[in-house]
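In response to reviewer comment 3 from the previous cycle, which asked for concrete evidence that the modeling workflow produces usable outputs, we include below a single protein chain processed end to end. The sequence was submitted unchanged, and the resulting structure tokens are shown without manual editing.
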Amino acid sequence: MEDAAVDGVLSIPLSVMAAAGGPVLHMLRADSRHFSAFGEIYFSVINPGAVKAWKRHRLQEQNFACPCGLVRLVAYDGREASPTFGTLASFTLGLPDHYRLLRIPPGVFYGFTALSAKPAVLANCADMVHNPDEADALPPDSPLVPYSWPPPA
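The workflow returned the following structure tokens.
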């Protein structure tokens, strides 16, 4: 398990097991020390060149993995009381070299884009059922987050 530059964000290598017909990919187990609770699992498809940003949950923890394609996920710590307030961290997620779980704690803005030529799939195992009233969203070019997404290729 690796600590990322943003307090509370964890980047955890995941197992990929060879199997006939294609690999088996682990994501999250209830007995993992970084598992907190199960709320729901959903999949976000990211088309090449699309940016899905920015989102912040006030209560919900995200657990992301990319089983298909390649994704750049950027986290921004906008929590004023955090020791890493104002810090950006960028992660590459996906197969074959970047298969990992990325845990994003409540209060941290995140966004992502596909780096692959085909759509990518980002899985999220959240610790609570989605409630839109506890989330905040900003546009990808918000001046509140000091990051510029690269233009589509």
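The chain is about 0% helix and 45% strand. We consider this sufficient to address the reviewer's concern, and the full set will be provided in the supplementary archive.
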